Amino acid sequence: MVKICCIGAGYVGGPTMAVIALKCPSIEVAVVDISVSRITAWNSDQLPIYEPGLDEVVKQCRGKNLFFSTEVEKHVSEADIIFVSVNTPTKTRGLGAGKAADLTYWESAARMIADVSKSNKIVVEKSTVPVKTAEAIEKILTHNSKGIKYQILSNPEFLAEGTAIQDLFNPDRVLIGGRETPDGLKAIQALKDVYAQWVPEDRIITTNLWSAELSKLAANAFLAQRISSVNAMSALCEATGADVSQVSHAVGKDTRIGPKFLNASVGFGGSCFQKDILNLVYICECNGLTEVANYWRQVIKINDYQKSRFVNRVVSSMFNTVSGKKVAILGFAFKKDTGDTRETPAIDVCKGLLGDKACLSIYDPQVTEDQIQRDLSLNKFDWDHPVHLQPMSPSTVKQQVGVVWDAYEATKGAHGLCILTEWDEFKTLDYQKIFDNMQKPAFVFDGRNIVNAEKLREIGFIVYSIGKPLDPWLKDMPALA
Ligand code: NAI
């Protein structure tokens, strides 16, 4: 029986391994983590992450061929294939701070593998890492190898949070990079055999190591660039009377462009896009490619611009001040169907409004009060982009922020409401009831373009939708962006 061990039981390690276990009953899969609370949660009825369909997959395999454990060394030493799916955040201090990937967790995982291994291993990079990381990992492993042979593969994960299970069941492609030596090719084949149990062979792409590593950074950069492109257009639409949805539809009909990922919004978030682009920028700079670095940096600048443009629009519409006014925030997660708040645009928008002394009442169906308070109290690492954010002490945040468990409660007595996550339930709220219980004039700022603005205007709301022709009220109060 092939044994797989995955180091890191996070958003990627957990769902990916659960699906491998489900699709490959003859493989024993152990997911290990240094975080006791995470592993305890994986072994409970309340999984540590929310993903549609995940519960069912875990329930079917847990205890049979899927195990979650904190016995990291034991499972690593027993495994034939070791996936490393630890976090690779942006470095916050030292060389490359604010851009380079922090590989501390990766390096410590690699050293531990070298320490405890007693048989040959295939080590798979699942985390998103800078191109050429495999070379560094190879050095750590071979310099400490005690005669054991390691093959390093790059197998970046392309799942999207919120649709992780669907993406894993039916991936657009699986990418495996490895050394082009006989042992390297054998290792590639071994991993290919795992995926081939449910993924059609023509969707399993094999490349050299560096192409696989770089493809993941490139894919995220392209995706984020599409969002920044449409968001840049949304600003121009507001200035000219064009409608960004109509423009996106017309543009997306071109088969060379395609219709997906062209929704204007308050900005992209999530743990990956910004960090991976910063990482790409850093790699370009290290290779003397300043122009290329600047090109990609602009994708993040537009994202920041979109968030501050939204805040400015809220404040300027409400008579240029939100001081002491209750503003409801509907949605805090970075996208629907996840509870993940890493780099969510809601953090910057809320901080911008708090900086103008608004009183926020926040509701998200999947994010806890603790998480929201923590996110808003944390000082964001300021790389080199200007976001007008005030550092907030936890006590100020507590005073100005309330977290409630119902959209009606959040909006009661509010002057305005901001939709920051596209949760389906926000589309079908009783907006008449919400209007009746709000201060007048009552404002809706739709950061995801999910409500029917015309219907809301009929009720009496003043509505701002990103990239859409402006409400007459808003035209008279131009944003100060
Ligand atoms: P995460 O933060 O949810 O999980 C990482 C886990 O690794 C944590 O539970 C942590 O305790 C554990 N860990 C760290 N060092 C360890 C060690 N030495 N031994 C054992 N466990 C250790 O991170 P997430 O979101 O799962 O991301 C992992 C990697 O996958 C990152 O490189 C990310 O860029 C990449 N990725 C993430 C995607 C996402 O949607 N979240 C999608 C595709 C790739």
Automatic annotation (TrEMBL):
Q: Is NAD among the key words of this record? A: yes
The record's annotation in InterPro entries points to: 6-PGluconate_DH-like_C_sf, NAD(P)-bd_dom_sf, UDP-Glc/GDP-Man, UDP-Glc/GDP-Man_DH_C, UDP-Glc/GDP-Man_DH_C_sf, UDP-Glc/GDP-Man_DH_dimer, UDP-Glc/GDP-Man_DH_N, UDPglc_DH_euk
Give the Gene3D superfamilies listed for this entry.
Answer: Cytochrome c1, transmembrane anchor, C-terminal (1.20.5.100), NAD(P)-binding Rossmann-like Domain (3.40.50.720)
Q: Could you say which enzyme class this protein belongs to?
A: oxidoreductase
Q: Which GO terms describe its cellular component?
A: nucleus
Family from the record: Belongs to the UDP-glucose/GDP-mannose dehydrogenase family.
The name of this protein is UDP-glucose 6-dehydrogenase
Tell me the name of the encoding gene: UGD1
